[in-house]
Amino acid sequence: MGERLAQIRKERGFTQAELAEKVGILQNIVSAHERGRLRLSAEMLIRFARALDVSTDDLLGIQEKPSNGTTKNRRLLRRISHIDKLSKRDQEALLRTIDAFLAKEP
């Protein structure tokens, strides 16, 4: 279970400290769960799942989401989450800029 938690955390682009902040616990508690030193209570399972935006089944490895080519680049994932919080107008402006860069690609 701990390995799965670490894997999903990394896929989502979070450090242990960032996840701990989202969940409202200390970083060393996240580390202890990932290393299997602490058993995951039902409450903590739900808190981690919500913070990572996955189902509890996904976190437990019961039902794995298929990989659809999503990026594993942590910096890019973080930026995308910030872009999603921008106003529609700012998002459109940013997307036009990105599209212009991508159009230059061979």
Backbone structural class: mainly alpha
The CATH architecture of the largest domain can be named as Orthogonal Bundle
Classify the helix fraction into a percent range: 55-70%
Domains, number: 2
Radius of gyration: 17 Å
Topology, number of strands = 0
CATH topology of the largest domain: 434 Repressor (Amino-terminal Domain)
N-to-C series of helices and strands: HHHHHHH
Distance between the amino and carboxyl termini: 43 Å
Compute the average pLDDT: 86
Which regions contain 5 or more consecutive residues with pLDDT less than 50?
none
Taking the sheet with the most strands, its summary is: none
Overall, the morphology is: elongated
Tell me what portion of residues adopts beta-strand conformation: under 5%
CATH class of the largest domain: Mainly Alpha
The CATH superfamily of the largest domain is known as lambda repressor-like DNA-binding domains
Structure description:
- This protein has 106 residues and is mostly helical.
- The chain folds into two domains: 2-60, lambda repressor-like DNA-binding domains (434 Repressor (Amino-terminal Domain), Orthogonal Bundle); 74-103.
- Helix content is 64%, strand content 0%.
- The protein is built from seven helices and no strands.
- It has helices spanning 2-11, 16-23, 27-34, 42-52, 56-60, 74-83, 88-103.
- Helix 2 (16-23) packs across helix 3 (27-34).
- It is elongated, with a radius of gyration of 17 Å.
- It starts with a helix and ends with a helix.
- The model has no long low-confidence stretch (mean pLDDT 86).
